Automatic annotation (TrEMBL):
GO terms for biological process: isopentenyl diphosphate biosynthetic process, methylerythritol 4-phosphate pathway. Pfam families: IspD. It comes from Gracilimonas mengyeensis. The gene is ispD. Catalyzes the formation of 4-diphosphocytidyl-2-C-methyl-D-erythritol from CTP and 2-C-methyl-D-erythritol 4-phosphate (MEP). This is 2-C-methyl-D-erythritol 4-phosphate cytidylyltransferase. Pathway: Isoprenoid biosynthesis; isopentenyl diphosphate biosynthesis via DXP pathway; isopentenyl diphosphate from 1-deoxy-D-xylulose 5-phosphate: step 2/6. Its EC number is 2.7.7.60. One of its GO terms (molecular function) is 2-C-methyl-D-erythritol 4-phosphate cytidylyltransferase activity. Belongs to the IspD/TarI cytidylyltransferase family. IspD subfamily.
Length: 229
């Protein structure tokens, strides 16, 4: 099934506290976004790569694309929005008609393995959606406004959702349109699909697929890149 990947890269990177957005930070001689794009180039049936970035970074992305001239893949950059969800919504508007599966993958997860992307595609083709994740390692507490603990969900049933999150195209578009109509803003893509009754399965990934969020994550990323982790 032909695959498009949407890579949201329009965040401001507040928690990192750098002077440029995270996808453009350098990691082993290339920017983080370049690493991430390259992870999709040898995925089976990859057909289109769409990056959402803030308008002042669009020229930079256009010039990045020149390093990736796979004839069979089309590259497009679109302007992002004020929330991750709106960035992805904008990217969904340019997905090609012939595409059957759409993956969403954070620009700041440069260590995703191609074989896992393919495994997730197979699950999405079969059931509707697939999400890469790992079993929760910490006990998760639910708290009220006063931080009193109100519940301790059974950890054996809790997974940490990562990306990619991959869906049948029509299902994802329907979920995004419905969220927009209802003013629902979620923290991932699957939650939008879940709320319209779509079936999404967890696909076990690995802990190297970290999201570069805080300065410490950049240090860990350098270790992973140098094969020290
Ligand atoms: N993202 C986006 N548009 C937004 C917000 C986030 O495209 N309005 C992207 C980020 O660029 C990142 C991914 O979504 O690749 C995951 O978001 P996150 O790690 O939270 O990045 P930031 O929002 O940039 O960081 P912070 O929340 O610390 O400001
Ligand atoms: Mg954010």
């Amino acid at each position: 099934a032909k695959l498009s990947v949407i890579i949201p890269a329009a965040g401001s990177g507040e928690r990192m506290g750098a002077d440029i957005p995270k996808p453009f930070l350098e990691l082993g001689g290339r920017c983080i976004l370049e690493h991430t794009i390259s992870r999709f180039l040898n995925v089976r049936d990859i057909h289109q790569i769409v990056i959402a970035a803030s308008s002042n970074y669009l020229p930079r992305i256009e010039s990045l694309f020149k390093n990736f001239e796979e004839a069979s893949v089309s590259y497009l950059a679109v302007e992002g929005g004020s929330e991750r969800q709106y960035s992805i919504y904008n990217a969904l508007q340019v997905i090609k008609d012939e595409v059957e599966l759409v993956a969403v993958h954070d620009a700041v997860r440069p260590f995703i393995r191609s074989s896992l992307i393919e495994k997730c595609c197979e699950v999405a083709s079969k059931v509707g959606g697939g999400v890469i994740g790992v079993p929760a390692k910490d006990t998760i507490k639910q708290v009220d406004e006063g931080r009193n603990i109100t519940a301790t969900p059974d950890r054996s049933k809790l997974w940490q959702a990562q990306t990619p999150q991959i869906f049948q195209k029509e299902l994802l578009i329907k979920a995004y349109n419905s969220a927009l109509a209802d003013d629902f803003v979620g923290t991932d893509d699957a939650s939008l699909v879940e709320r319209i009754g779509g079936n999404v399965q967890m696909v076990e990934g690995d802990r190297k697929n970290l999201k570069i969020t805080y300065p410490i994550d950049l240090k860990v990323a350098e270790l992973i890149l140098n094969n020290q982790l």
